[in-house]
């Protein structure tokens, strides 16, 4: 099923106090995390949380999602997942780095958030080869996305097609890997919000392929 682009104009008004407080604390946690992990290759790159907050806010205000279930693929310090929960979504995040998961859980607890943050891979089981194939098509030297799979969805008691909105921040050049995994595993109607460089966000919806296209793409059997 193809992904349809949705135009999302952001209304960047002032941040609510609880959001501003979370982002201030998240900055401090990030600085400390980088100090404690200075030997960690490329380091940890968060998205611009203010931009992502406004995007989530617009999606919820316009009621664009088919339901309240949210998942952050590669949730890092868990900030976007906590922001989603603050906006009334049933939010969870999956992160492959255990130290980041521990920081994320501590941050969620500090803000009394019900966001669920689990350790594991967001690559659905059975999709490893698909992710690796999509990766092979990228020409980026740096790779942050791990293509291994595990049981993170079992831990959550949810499947990838249970989510109404998925957020990810792919490294530049890796966007197609996220698109491919989402297109393959998300439910019809689900939304994919991605953060890109220079504070840009992109919103896409998984839609049904038009019948004429389905027909044209079938190999001739007569
Ligand atoms: C660019 S960071 C973005 C973090 C966070 N989403 C944000 O917006 O600040 C990407 C994160 O994805 C994690 N990651 C990479 N591959 C993963 C996988 N297969 N499953 C879960 N997390 C993964 C990395 O460890 C990293 O924390």
Describe this structure in words.
With about 220 residues, the protein is α/β, with parallel strands linked by helices. It has a single domain (about 5-10, about 45-200), classed as Vaccinia Virus protein VP39 (Rossmann fold, 3-Layer(aba) Sandwich), CATH 3.40.50.150. Helices cover about 40% and strands about 15% of the residues. The chain has eight helices and seven strands. It has helices spanning about 15-35, 50-60, 80-85, 100-110, 130-135, 150-155, 175-185, 210-215; strands at about 5, 70-75, 90-95, 115-120, 165-170, 190-195, 200-205. The protein has a seven-stranded mixed β-sheet, with helices on both faces. Helix 4 (about 100-110) links the parallel strand 3 (about 90-95) and strand 4. It is globular and about 50 Å long. The protein binds S-adenosylmethionine.
Q: How would you summarize what this structure contains?
A:
The chain is of the alpha/beta class. 39% of the residues lie in helices and 16% in strands. Helix 2 (49-61) runs parallel beside helix 3 and helix 5 (128-136) packs antiparallel against helix 7 (175-185).
State the name of the first-level CATH class: Alpha Beta
CATH fold assignment: Rossmann fold
What is the CATH architecture term? 3-Layer(aba) Sandwich
Distance between the termini: 25 Å
Helical stretch tally: 8
Total count of domains: 1
Low-confidence stretches: 217-222
Rg over alpha carbons: 18 Å
Instruction: Give the SSE string.
Output: EHHEHEHEHHEHEEH
Secondary structural class: alpha/beta
CATH level-4 homologous superfamily: Vaccinia Virus protein VP39
Apparent shape: globular
Helical amount: 25-40%
